[in-house]
C-alpha cells in the first residue's frame, strides 16, 4: 500500500467530512471478505492496515482449545504453548498469512470501498440537509416529466412532485422555476428521496410568512387554512396587538401582498378573514364574501345554522358548494346555510330573545382577493333585539357592497 492512499483518505476527510478511521475500518472489513473470496479460505482472518507505514498484513485467527474439531478455526493448546507458553484455553492465536499477490486485490478493493463510502457519506449529508427542511418552502427548477411524476431539481437532489400534489390548472415545462413545499424526506437504498407539493396548505402558509413581515415576526398569527389548490383558499388570521390590523397586514397596500401570493399560485383566489374564539363571529367571517344575518350555534354537535339574505344565498354557498365547504374546513364547524325567507318559515329568524346571544350584531370584516383591493372595512349594525325589521329595500342598500363579488 502506497502513501497515495493515505493522502487520498486525508483529502476525503477534509472535503467530505468522512473520518479517516471510519474509512480504514471499512477497507479492512472489505479486505477480509476479498481474502476469503479470492483465496477460497473459510478461516477467521484479520487485516491490519497501517497507513503511516504503508503496510498491510493478513492474520489468521484460531481459538485455543484442548481438542481440535476444525483445524481452520481452532488450534490445540499444546501447539499454542509451543508458539507462546502464555497461551491458555480460550485465547486467540494469530498467524500472518498474507498472500504474495494480495496487494493488487487490496488496492482494487480499497478503491471500491472508498468510492462506496464517499457515496454513502454524500447521501447522508444530503439527507440531513433536507430532512431538517421538511415543512419548508424551496425554489426548484423543473427538470423532467413523466405520466405520474414531475421531477424538480433542488440543487443537490432531485425532488419528486407527484401528480396528486400538482395544481391541475398549472402547466409545467422543463427549466421552469417554481416554489414547492417539502412534505417528506426518505433515506432509501438509492439515496435520499425528497417529496414536494404545490397543493399542500403549508405552501400557502409559508408564502404568507415570506411576504408578510408581521406574520414572519409573529405579530400576526395564521390560525387556520382551508385550501382547494388552484381555485380558492381561505385563511384566518389573528393578532393580540390592538394597534395592528391582521387582515390589512396580509392584504397589503391596495392588495399588493396577497396579490403576489395569488400570482405565485397561478391566480388562486384567497379570502383572508379575522379569527375569533367566538364561533358566531368566526363562522360569519369565514363565509366571506357573503353577508351573514344570524348564526345559531349548537355546541354539542359542533354545528351552526347560518341565515343570509335571500339574494346572497348562492354567494354564501359558492360554486358547487365551495365557499361553504371551505368555511367549514377553516372553522372546524359544520355549517348549514339558509336563506332569510326559509329561516322565517322555520321560525329560526328573527331569533327570540332567548337566542339573541347568537345573533350577529355586525357585518363580517373580511377581505376577498376578488375585490378591487380596497382594504377599508365598515362595521354596520344590522340586528338588535328591540329593533323593528328593516325593509327589503334598506337591506339591499346595506349589503350592496358585496353583492357582485363572485360569479355563481
Automatic annotation (TrEMBL):
* Record localization: Cytoplasm
Q: From the UniProt entry, list the residue stretches annotated as the region Disordered.
A: 369-408
Alphabetically ordered keywords of this record: Cytoplasm, RNA-binding, Transcription, Transcription antitermination, Transcription regulation, Transcription termination
Q: Tell me which Gene3D superfamilies the record gives.
A: 3.30.300.20, Nucleic acid-binding proteins, NusA, N-terminal domain
Q: Which InterPro entries match?
A: KH_dom, KH_dom-like_a/b, KH_NusA_2nd, KH_sf_prok-type, NA-bd_OB-fold, NusA_N_sf, S1_domain, TF_NusA
Domain named S1 motif is located at 135-199
Q: Where is the composition biased (Acidic residues)?
A: 369-390, 399-408
According to the lineage, what is the superkingdom?
Bacteria
SMART domains annotated for this entry?
Answer: KH, S1
Which Pfam families does the UniProt record give? KH_NusA_1st, KH_NusA_2nd, NusA_N, S1
What functional role does this protein have?
Answer: Participates in both transcription termination and antitermination.
Q: Which family does the similarity line name?
A: Belongs to the NusA family.
Q: How does it assemble?
A: Monomer. Binds directly to the core enzyme of the DNA-dependent RNA polymerase and to nascent RNA.
Q: Would you tell me the protein name for this molecule?
A: Transcription termination/antitermination protein NusA
Native source species? Sporosarcina contaminans
Question: What lineage does UniProt assign to this protein's organism?
Answer: Bacteria, Bacillati, Bacillota, Bacilli, Bacillales
Amino acid at each position: 500500500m502506497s502513501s497515495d492512499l493515505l493522502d487520498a483518505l486525508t483529502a476525503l476527510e477534509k472535503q467530505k467530512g468522512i473520518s479517516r478511521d471510519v474509512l480504514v475500518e471499512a477497507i479492512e472489513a472489505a479486505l477480509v471478505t476479498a481474502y476469503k473470496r479470492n483465496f477460497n479460505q473459510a478461516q477467521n482472518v484479520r487485516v491490519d492496515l497501517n497507513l503511516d507505514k504503508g503496510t498491510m498484513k493478513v492474520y489468521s485467527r484460531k481459538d485455543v482449545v484442548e481438542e481440535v474439531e476444525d483445524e481452520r478455526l481452532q488450534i490445540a493448546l499444546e501447539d499454542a504453548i509451543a508458539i507462546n507458553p502464555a497461551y491458555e484455553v480460550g485465547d486467540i492465536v494469530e498467524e500472518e498469512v498474507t498472500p504474495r499477490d494480495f496487494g493488487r486485490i487490496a488496492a482494487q478493493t480499497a478503491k471500491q470501498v472508498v468510492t462506496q463510502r464517499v457515496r454513502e457519506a454524500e447521501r447522508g449529508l444530503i439527507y440531513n440537509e433536507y430532512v431538517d427542511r421538511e415543512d419548508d418552502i424551496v425554489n426548484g427548477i423543473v427538470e423532467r416529466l413523466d405520466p405520474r411524476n414531475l421531477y424538480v431539481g433542488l440543487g443537490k437532489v432531485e425532488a419528486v412532485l407527484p401528480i396528486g400534489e400538482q395544481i391541475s390548472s398549472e402547466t409545467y415545462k422543463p427549466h421552469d422555476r417554481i416554489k414547492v413545499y417539502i412534505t417528506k424526506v426518505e433515506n432509501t437504498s438509492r439515496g435520499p428521496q425528497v417529496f414536494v407539493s404545490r397543493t399542500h396548505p403549508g405552501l400557502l402558509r409559508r408564502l404568507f410568512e415570506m411576504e408578510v413581515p408581521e406574520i414572519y415576526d409573529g405579530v400576526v398569527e395564521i390560525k387556520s387554512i382551508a385550501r382547494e389548490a388552484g381555485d380558492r383558499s381561505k385563511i384566518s388570521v389573528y393578532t393580540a396587538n390592538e394597534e395592528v390590523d391582521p387582515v390589512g397586514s396580509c392584504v397589503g397596500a391596495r392588495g399588493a401582498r396577497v396579490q403576489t401570493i395569488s400570482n405565485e399560485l397561478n391566480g388562486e383566489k384567497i379570502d383572508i378573514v379575522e379569527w375569533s374564539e367566538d364561533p358566531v363571529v368566526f363562522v360569519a367571517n369565514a363565509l366571506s364574501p357573503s353577508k351573514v344575518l344570524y348564526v345559531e350555534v349548537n355546541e354539542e354537535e359542533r354545528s351552526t345554522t347560518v341565515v343570509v339574505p335571500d339574494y346572497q344565498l348562492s354567494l354564501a354557498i359558492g360554486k358547487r358548494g365551495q365557499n361553504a365547504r371551505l368555511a367549514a374546513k377553516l372553522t372546524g364547524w359544520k355549517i348549514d346555510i339558509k336563506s332569510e325567507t326559509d329561516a322565517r318559515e322555520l321560525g329560526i329568524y328573527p331569533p327570540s330573545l332567548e337566542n339573541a346571544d347568537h345573533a350577529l350584531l355586525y357585518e363580517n370584516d373580511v377581505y376577498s382577493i376578488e375585490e378591487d383591493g380596497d382594504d377599508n372595512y365598515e362595521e354596520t349594525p344590522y340586528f338588535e333585539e328591540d329593533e323593528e325589521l328593516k325593509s327589503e329595500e334598506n337591506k339591499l342598500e346595506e349589503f350592496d357592497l358585496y353583492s357582485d363579488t363572485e360569479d355563481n
